[in-house]
Amino acid sequence: MARVFVYGTLKKGQPNYHNMTDKSHGTAKFQGRGLTVEKYPLVIAGKYNVPFLLNTPGRGHRIAGEIYFVDDQMLQFLDEFEDCPNMYQRNPMRIEVVEWEGTNSAPEERPAVNSILECYAYGTTTYQPEWINLPYYDNYNSFGKHGLPYVLREARVDKNQ
Q1: C-alpha distances in angstroms, 22 versus 2, 18, 28, 122, 152?
Q2: Vertex 41, ends 7 and 54: CA angle to 5°?
Q3: Rounded to two decimals, what is the model's pTM?
Q4: Has 38 been annotated as catalytic?
């Protein structure tokens, strides 16, 4: 099992969350919520309004997201879903625990609130240079006030993007 931090369309209540609960992709167990220790630019970019965490630590905000334990099958699915390593790259990232609900470990093994975990996260170094100048967000919501709803892959003209 690996820890994965999701900050975009895979979070609960977001357009691609169903992928996290689809057992045909593997197993993903929600553990809690966290914040990136470092600041990152989280932007919404492209004609399909995709959230991207730009891998330029030190700029932007601490990013809010969810922590999951995933099995190898789900990790492989997520790599494919995130077009890793072409569009996104999966890298270890330090995450501060804000809230922990995970019950699959002994009490003494559960991370305390404010403790730091290392989780995989999908960020990108392969982005358009102008994206660094887009507005930065700290908590992605496809249905937010920004007016940039995510376009599901099934609704896109080019299904590969």
Answers
A1: 17, 6, 9, 19, 17
A2: 80
A3: 0.91
A4: no
